[in-house]
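Collaborator request, handled under Task 6.
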Amino acid sequence: MGSSESTVPRPPSPPPPNPELDKPWRKFDWGQKEDLKKKLENFCPSHPDVKDIKILLAGPIGAGKSSFINSVDSAFLGRISSRALVDTSGGDSQSFTKNLKGFSIRSGKKTLPFIFKDIMGLEPEAFEGSQTEDIINAVYGHVKDGYKFNQEQALGYNDQHYIREPNLSDQCFCLVYVIAADTVQFTDDRLIDKLRIIRQKISEKGIPQVIVMTKVDDACPLVKNDLRKIYKSKKIKEKMELCSAKVGVPMSHIFPVKNYHDEIDTNNDVDVLILKAIEQIVHIANDRLEDSESF
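Structure tokens returned to the collaborator:
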């Protein structure tokens, strides 16, 4: 007599979790591009002795600091800009930016009253990438444009690029950490330690800190297909919460954006995210400028 084993059917696999929230967790107006541009074009620093508000960008290698500057420029110009040189070779072992350089932003023929300072990328190793002392000194206005970062030694007091007594116009009033959402590199404890040193020192003088989270389209397929779902993406919200916990910056000071990378034309949805981030950063920096008596 033959026998046959009864086959127990497997239960159906549970459906994959929905990557999309039922409703956006942050209110956002996708039609405010032109209004944001006008507000920023008409912005004036709150202090009569400061004509340009300086904002320092810091972040790990490959996070997109220079691309962010180009994307801001592109949003105002209505065409793709590439003033800040970007490494497209695919290698990310060394920072492409070597010198401190300030970038003004243009809108048409008008130069806007804020300047982004680009620096060498941070690296986890103790003596590689931007020195924490150099970043702190750059925030306080002690570092001249053109200074070439030295991986082994921070800028010295007697160096020709050191400004011993910076005036208000030399100082930065906001530090922006640029972090890539697809990797969230600040999970490396050595990078976190560097950031804590910087954060503690500049917090002593009340310098506000902001996170711009780039590469959201690489981090989340939902957002890659539709940028307007950025505030409905569970993954992007989780990435922002992780950055907030690791770096110590509140969620209200974290702004996810998509930089221009391979596009040849600008896009309204890309622009409005960038312009909103800039509006918030500029006002946060200007609030600190208003308290400049305590510098």
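The cover message to the collaborator said: "Confidence is low (pLDDT under 50) at residues 91-95. Strands lie at 53-58, 101-107, 110-118, 172-180, 209-214, 254-256. Please let us know whether this matches your experimental observations."
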